[in-house]
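Entry 12.
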Amino acid sequence: MNPLLARLQPYPFERLRQLHAPVTPNPALRPISLGIGEPRHATPELIKTALMASLAGLASYPATLGEPALRLAMANWVERRYGLKLNTATQILPVNGSREALFALTQTIIDPTRAGATVVSPNPFYQIYEGAALLAGAQVYYAPSDASRNFGIDWAAVPEAVWAKTQLLIVCSPGNPTGAVMDLQEWKLLFELSDRHGFVIASDECYSEIYFRPEPPLGSLQAAAALGRHDFKNLVALTSLSKRSNVPGLRSGFVAGDAAIMKSFLLYRTYHGSAMSPVVQAASRAAWDDEAHVVLNREMYRQKFAEVTPLLAGVMKVSLPDAGFYLWAEIPPAFKGSDENFSSQLLAQYNVVVLPGSYLARDVTGIDGKRFNPGAGRVRMALVAETAECLEAAERIVLFCQAHAAPAA
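Predicted 3D structure (tokens):
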């Protein structure tokens, strides 16, 4: 067996299953899960219609590059969303969801024969970043997060010696689990570091269309163009339809950016066998061509968060994120920082599932020399269900926190 498999850590939801295995949920209450970030709003009818109308495509092998009409639909969306024109022949590729693409892109980029090959990852982070790096034969450096800036990454705190060994930097904006959005100054710093050390930047932007500010989140390609980097040197953006269009089962997205990287990525994917089904391509074209369902979806999240967030803010330290569909909440003092204990007791007493924040991060050494987990003492709540169900879950969490509130001095 591949010895690198032994380096992988259990996936967060496997850890959650093991944590909750001995717990008996309150049988008097119906189960509600805020654990997994799986969109549960209805899939738009236009996507279903396009899917059903294209079943004849099952009789043909798809090309890894994808159909020209699909790449054009993707490029047109980039132009509408970010004001950028992409070369559909060299700067954009369809992928089977951003998770698959993140893994494959990492295998394409990392040269494990170079001593100290490093992938820099945010912390907390989406676990595929780490797994992809380890299976590519690289080591992972977990960039320090700044809790005072909604867990934005303190890129300036990463040592130059780490940047010198870095082959790939993975960023996530809007962030999972925090919802933090990177600004132009952050991008400027990262581009300068990339130019100095030659590493590639992979920007995971799958939450870009669910936001709460008036202005949509800044995209990496958009930032590059604003800074005069129109060739997108050493930059690849990744996005998908899962969150934007409520089709996680479609497994469809695209990557775009540096044409030289796209060429190598296409070669890797050709051998990897990652071509998108013609049926999925047809449904994806319909999704990228329509924005009305995206606006409606965003408004549903806005209304839901507007109702749920103030309710929870009365008993926990939590606030509206910049974007995404997670609440990244600090647990009450009565639990003494044990997010696992909070999650287990909440399930036992109120039959609500939340994900311990420590499962989304790795232990690192602080400036005081002590080890700590930046996700500890927090929980991630995925507000993906309908508003009524999320509100019911929030009301139960309020009762739970009130029941465990520390007595007045």
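Annotation: Residues 292-313 form the longest helix (22 residues). Residues 45-290 form a domain with the Aspartate Aminotransferase; domain 2 fold (CATH 3.40.640.10).
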